[in-house]
Write a structure and sequence with these properties.
Layout: H1 19-71, E1 86-89, E2 106-109, E3 131-149, E4 154-157, E5 168-172, E6 178-183, E7 186-188, E8 191-193, E9 197-198, E10 205-206, E11 243-256, E12 264-270, E13 281-285, E14 287-296, E15 309-311, E16 333-343, E17 353-355, E18 364-366, E19 370-378
Parallel strand pairs: 1-6
Antiparallel strand pairs: 2-3, 3-4, 3-11, 4-8, 5-6, 5-11, 7-8, 9-10, 11-12, 12-13, 14-15, 14-16, 16-19, 17-18
């Protein structure tokens, strides 16, 4: 009987990787990780980009809506056309609020012409943005005259609303023939006193107690508040039914954000309840440039309510248009074209990029993202027919 021999073959246990196997595995792993990291970075960049776009759009929308809301009220004076009425502006315009106390619906400024009340606050790191003051009267308190004693400078009213001593207010005749502007010397129950002088705890001052005729404090008034150089500036009585309105004056400009001195922001300053110019209020950050054009009715002699030219503030040098100015004045502005440049918070572009958002405007060379927003707003109250 033969015997067979069976040879058993076993496989030795693997003790490690060869150098080649290790290099191959590391190469494959690095490819996988490179893909993961690239995907992460791309997603993060896309997220940051979308977040900055949303930031710019939301801020620009808020800025435009806020300014446009005031522009639509600009020039409101109780339903009257201020350009067609006698206006007695008895507020002393030589005070620190002078630029806020004028009677034109809007007034624009640029470069070195910004008013002293906020000139030092204007953003100047890259651009030279415009600024603008908007003025109107507010009837939210619905104050109506029941009687007026011109000699004692006291107005009896249905209520005093939010008026305080020093508040600047507008008094409009029921038939719109006469408008008066003054600082409240004193407020008591159902009564507004517009005497000459400063109100209680107020820096607002009247040069006259008279509320009739067509004058302002650039006309010399005597110690009794009489203004002999102004027509019909003697005591004037407003009949029952006339309206009392809070005088609103707001300045919009671009300044440096209080949160980061490298970020621009839209600010507003306004007349507060005691007639002083308020502390600057930061409305929204990321608004870097603010350029404004004004639509002017240049029809000779009598305005026809149609815009003939769009001009910068530098081209409008008078409050009241006349032949010498080519019938260009702030009283002839019928619309405002706003151009705002919104800027991202962080430099999110991949490389330094040259941008000129506003045609002929400032050119930026950096990695910030920018967006230009343009809108035109009609000054509805400026288009009112002249008073009869």
């Amino acid at each position: 009987m033969g015997y067979g021999f069976i040879k058993q073959y076993g496989f030795a246990k693997q003790q490690g990787l060869t150098l080649i196997e290790l290099l191959v595995s590391m190469f494959i792993t690095s490819i996988i990780f490179a893909g993961v990291i690239n995907t992460f970075l791309t997603t993060k960049q896309s997220y940051l980009f979308d977040a900055e776009v949303s930031y710019m759009q939301e801020n620009a929308r808020f800025a435009v809506d806020t300014i446009a809301r005031d522009l639509r009220q600009a020039g409101y004076s109780g339903g009257c056309n201020m350009n067609g009425a006698n206006v007695a502006n008895a507020v002393d315009i030589s005070t620190s609020q002078a630029d806020f106390l004028k009677t034109t619906a809007v007034e624009g400024f640029q470069l070195a012409d910004h008013p002293d009340e906020y000139k030092d606050d204007v953003w100047a790191m890259v651009s030279s943005p415009d600024s603008m003051i908007i003025r109107y009267s507010s009837d939210v308190n619905n104050i109506t005259v029941t009687s007026h004693n011109a000699a004692s400078a006291e107005i009896d009213v249905t209520s005093t609303g939010d008026l305080e001593a020093g508040s600047i207010f507008m008094l409009a005749h029921i038939n719109c023939s006469q408008i008066g502007i003054a600082a409240a010397y004193e407020i008591s129950t159902g009564k507004v006193d517009h005497s000459k002088g400063s109100g209680v705890d107020s820096s607002s001052t009247n040069c006259s107690k008279h509320m009739g005729g067509h004058f302002n404090c650039s006309v010399a008034c005597d110690s009794d508040g009489n203004c002999p150089g102004a027509p019909n500036s003697s005591a004037y009585t407003y009949p029952p039914g006339s309206g009392v309105y809070e005088f609103v004056s707001k300045a919009y400009y671009i300044g440096t954000s209080s949160a980061d001195d490298a970020v621009p922001a839209l600010f507003v300053k306004k007349l507060d309840s005691d007639g002083d110019v308020s502390i600057a209020e930061e409305l929204v950050s990321g608004v870097e440039d603010f350029q404004i054009l004004y639509g002017v009715d240049t029809q000779a002699l009598s305005a026809d309510g149609k815009v003939n030219r769009y001009l910068t503030s530098a081209n409008i040098t008078q409050d009241v248009a006349d032949a010498g100015s080519g019938w260009i004045g702030w009283d002839r502005v019928l619309s405002v074209r706003l151009q705002l440049v919104a800027r991202s918070r962080d430099p999110v572009l991949q490389q330094t990029t040259s941008q000129t958002p506003i045609a002929g405007g400032v050119t930026y060379n950096d990695k910030y993202m920018r967006q230009l927003i343009t809108t035109t707003v009609q000054l509805r109250n400026a288009a009112l027919a002249a008073n009869i």
